[in-house]
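Protein data sheet
==================
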Amino acid sequence: MSVAAPARRPGADSGARTPVRGGRTVRVGPVSALLRWRQLAVPVAALALLVLAAALSMGRGDYPIGIGEVLRTLAGLADDPQEFVVLQLRAPRVVVGALVGLALGVSGALFQTFARNPLASPDTLGITSGASVGAVAAIVLSGGSSAGAVLGGLGIPVAALLGALLTGALLFALTWRAGVDGYRLVLIGIALWSVGAALVDWLLTNAEIYDAASAYVWITGSLNARTWDHALPLALAVAVLLPLALAAGRALGVLQFGDDTARGLGLRLAGTQTAVVLLAVGLVGFAVSAAGPITFVALVVPQIAVRLTGGSRPPLLASGVLGALLVVAADLVTRTVLPQALPVGILTAAIGAPYLLWLLIRGRRRSTI
């Protein structure tokens, strides 16, 4: 008895699109990818809102400018005084805020997917705390010791970047045991965060009053007095690291299934995990070096993105755009809605801290069921 072979679908080998629930499977030769409409619609809508928030932010100040005039200025159609106000005084602050939010959002998505844990973020893993140690040491110890003189000569941004990279390397070294367990990663990260916070407190306690005040302003996370000198290094870093992070998306999908499954599918586990950690830490380091530790953005945004897109893991692109929108919008609120202008890091902490408590309570309830 013979069974007839099923008929081949027309165009199955020529890039045909197979409709699936919520999207389409696109095949080009041996390569296939699932294209979900929500994963495209969410970043596009967030980008439109980001442009609107950026225009509103660049129009607010002692010299108010309408949204239409801001857009005309960006297009090069305004007069010289208005162009100076928008492009030289206000645009750098908005651009730095958007790039910082983009970097933090992507970094948080990388960490949470890598660790398979929604609590994994640069804040809870101690990366931002390590960056704060480097920056505060550069401010407080500059000229007071040989190490402080070296840090002061490098500058606050470079010192913060070095602090983030060293903390990330220490985190990976302490966590690695023939692979990285997400639970152990979070526990060790919290310990490193505590050590970093203690070091920052010790440095501030022994600092001169003026140095301590300057360091305290920096560690709250602020976009005040940002210039193109702050924006350019961050833009170059994002231009290099973001495409690499997006290219790692397929490997991140494999890592979701666990270390043993990833090895069975032919993934080079050690190299992939190392590359993901370096990308995430690099994005955080440059973001913190440009604006200080703007906390909880990397924790909250990826979980918002995964719920809006309906995927199984935090999407990198949507997390980045939503992170940029959150930072720019929060900075706009602190300058225009609140009775007194505050650093943007204070508002993001006020948003993120209740969310962190909710995550912990929800996890405890699930563990007792």
Observations:
- The radius of gyration is 23 Å.
- Residues 38-368 form a domain with the ABC transporter involved in vitamin B12 uptake, BtuC fold (CATH 1.10.3470.10).
